[in-house]
Each structure stands twice: as structure tokens, then as C-alpha cells.
């Protein structure tokens, strides 16, 4: 066991505070990672505040981890000391079900082990990336290409793969009109990735406040959803809408923006249930869907794609002592576009 410094929430809704945690000794197929950077995801706030249900405390959040391998177990074949690596939202799965065998560990039917607020196969609670080090099985670690600096790569481990997976699955590319709903941590990466895939990209945001940023990052068009004319003008326009919004929406209104056979895919996860008139789906053979992160192979594919196209996240680097302030700023949409913790300050 190794004692490391970390930032943890001692109880639900409590401010995070500096503490120490124990990391397990390196097992045969484990890698020990010195964490350099950890992104702050809105999911961290949902879980710290039990917005998605009962959680495990004390909680060390963080599932956007970028660092360097400092030790490997004797059976490790994929990584060596000194490798630049990342860890995303999960650190294990059953590895035997149909989804795991197909590289879709995020949909493990036995339930995957989340990077934090989870329980491993050994019965131990998992602690995330707001810490100095982490120990992870090599099969749930990905390589960060040299073309990506570690600080801008960290948010790709959640924000990047969360939008890349549905864009790939629903075939975003040349000839497709894609709308990104919400211009935040996930949304700004969706704009970058959809543009790099060759799609015609429209941002749908509450206001035009971030329009210049959206166009700079690759959007072709930018509309305010607070303007009723937007829904009149764009009716029947899109093949795919990716919603990154974690608040309840008028799904009927947004479904009206789809072409026949279009899909509205949710990657944002509101805490409240939604209501839906099914006629908004039936008329136009439309799909209302959801998508969760990506498997390990797809996450590596995403990182390689982002490196090829020079797609790092837009970040604001902070010290660990600023985490609680950063949480409040995320809730106020006051970040462009992802806070990243400098782990050397933990």
C-alpha cells in the first residue's frame, strides 16, 4: 500500500478538502501512474452532491486522468515506465460478457467498476484522479500520443470520448448536418470532433454569448435556443443532434429540428426525469437515444484521432486549492471550457 495526498468530499454536498488515501500495491498486471493533470467534469459535481443517487464517502472524484507510468507489475506488456498515459471513467469490467468481448466495456452487463465512487472486484472502494497517484490494471489504461500535451489531453478521457462515441456511431461526417446542444466542457469538444470528421456543424446554445468561440472551434453556424425563431428556421434540418445538456429540455421542440430518420442523442444526464409526447418521435421515424463514454479501444482511437487533428481541450489550469471555487463556476457556466487540476499542487 502507498499513502498519497488527495482531495476528497467527506460527505454529500460537503466541500472537498485535502486528505490522504491508500493506493494498493502494484499487482501483476497493474501500472502505477504519477498523475500530472486531472480534469473536473460536471459528473464529479453530480456525484459529490448525490444528484444521481446515493454515493460512497469519503469520495475522491476525477475520471479525466493524465500522467506518466512510474512502476509496472511483472505481467504488464502494454506499458513501460515513462509512458504517457490516461485513465477515464472506468478501471475494470467483467471482461466476459458480450459487450466486454466486443470492446464495449462501458456497457458491461455485469457492471463495470467506475474510477471513483465504485467498488472493485477486491471489495475496495475506488478513488479517482484528484490525487497524486493511481494504480490501474493495464487493460484500462490508454496511451496519450506525444502530439497531445498532458494538460489538454486529460479532459479527453471523459469529455472527448463521451462525444466521440456517438458521433462515430451515428456516422457524423461529410454530407451530414450535426447540431451540438450546449457549448460547455463536452459541447466544445463535440464541435471540434464533428468538424474534424467533416460534418456541417451547428451549435445550439441558450444565448449567443459564446458564438465567437463556437465558430473559432469549428462550428459553421450558431443559434440561440432562447430565440423562438431558431426552432422555426431550423425545423427538419439535422441528421444528428448531440445533447450535452445536464438539465431537463423540451424534447419535443428539439426533436422537431431533426430530419426524417434523424437522431437526438443524449450524453448529458439530468438529475430529473423527463416527459415526452411520443408523437414527436413517430412523426418522422426519429430516434431519441443515449450514449455513455466509450470502450477502451474506442477511447484509444479517439485519442489518436485528436492527436492527428490537433484537438486538445480548451482548458483553465487551476491549483487543487481552487477545486471548490471551480465547482461553483462550473454550475454558473463560468469556464471556457474545462477546469484541469495541476496535480503537483495536491
UniProtKB/TrEMBL annotation:
Organism for this UniProt entry: Streptomyces griseoaurantiacus
Assigned keywords, A-Z? Metal-binding, Oxidoreductase, Zinc
Which class of enzymes does this protein belong to? oxidoreductase
Similarity comment text for this entry: Belongs to the zinc-containing alcohol dehydrogenase family.
Where does the Enoyl reductase (ER) domain lie? 14-341
- One protein family per Pfam: ADH_N
What InterPro entries does this protein's entry cite? ADH-like_C, ADH-like_N, ADH_Zn_CS, CAD-like, ER, GroES-like_sf, NAD(P)-bd_dom_sf
Catalyzed chemical reaction(s): a primary alcohol + NADP(+) = an aldehyde + NADPH + H(+)
Name any cofactors this protein relies on: Zn(2+)
Q: Recorded GO terms, molecular function?
A: alcohol dehydrogenase (NADP+) activity; zinc ion binding
Q: What is its EC number?
A: 1.1.1.2
Q: What is this protein called?
A: alcohol dehydrogenase (NADP(+))
Amino acid at each position: 500500500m502507498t499513502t498519497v495526498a488527495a482531495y476528497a468530499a467527506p460527505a454529500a454536498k460537503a466541500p472537498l478538502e485535502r486528505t490522504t488515501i491508500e493506493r494498493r500495491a502494484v499487482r501483476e498486471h497493474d501500472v502505477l501512474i504519477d498523475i500530472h493533470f486531472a480534469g473536473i467534469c460536471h459528473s464529479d459535481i453530480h456525484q459529490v452532491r448525490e444528484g444521481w443517487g446515493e454515493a460512497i464517502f469519503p469520495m475522491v472524484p476525477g475520471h479525466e486522468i493524465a500522467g506518466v507510468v512510474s512502476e509496472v507489475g511483472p505481467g504488464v506488456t502494454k506499458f513501460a515506465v515513462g509512458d504517457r498515459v490516461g485513465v477515464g471513467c472506468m478501471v475494470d469490467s467483467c471482461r466476459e460478457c458480450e459487450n466486454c468481448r466486443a470492446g464495449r466495456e462501458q456497457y458491461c452487463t455485469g457492471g463495470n467498476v467506475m474510477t471513483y465512487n465504485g467498488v472493485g472486484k477486491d471489495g475496495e472502494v475506488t478513488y479517482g484522479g484528484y490525487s497524486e497517484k493511481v494504480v490501474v490494471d493495464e487493460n484500462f489504461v490508454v496511451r496519450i500520443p506525444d502530439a497531445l500535451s498532458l494538460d489538454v489531453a486529460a479532459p479527453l478521457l471523459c469529455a472527448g470520448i463521451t462525444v466521440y462515441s456517438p458521433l462515430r456511431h451515428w456516422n457524423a461526417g461529410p454530407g451530414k448536418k450535426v447540431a451540438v446542444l450546449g457549448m460547455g466542457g463536452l459541447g466544445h469538444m463535440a464541435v471540434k470532433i464533428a468538424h474534424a470528421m467533416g460534418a456541417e456543424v451547428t451549435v445550439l446554445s441558450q444565448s449567443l454569448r459564446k458564438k465567437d468561440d463556437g465558430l473559432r472551434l469549428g462550428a459553421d453556424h450558431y443559434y440561440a435556443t432562447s430565440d423562438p425563431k431558431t426552432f422555426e428556421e431550423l425545423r427538419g434540418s439535422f441528421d444528428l443532434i448531440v445533447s450535452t445538456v445536464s438539465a431537463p429540455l423540451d424534447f419535443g421542440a428539439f426533436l422537431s429540428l431533426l430530419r426524417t430518420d434523424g437522431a437526438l442523442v443524449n450524453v448529458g444526464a439530468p438529475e430529473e426525469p423527463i416527459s415526452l409526447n411520443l408523437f414527436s418521435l413517430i412523426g418522422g421515424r426519429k430516434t431519441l437515444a443515449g450514449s455513455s463514454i466509450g470502450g477502451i479501444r474506442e477511447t484509444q482511437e479517439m485519442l489518436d484521432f485528436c492527436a492527428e487533428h490537433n484537438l486538445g481541450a480548451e482548458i483553465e489550469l487551476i491549483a487543487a486549492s481552487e477545486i471548490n471555487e471551480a465547482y461553483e463556476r462550473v454550475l454558473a457556466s463560468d469556464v471556457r471550457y474545462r477546469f484541469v487540476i495541476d496535480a503537483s499542487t495536491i
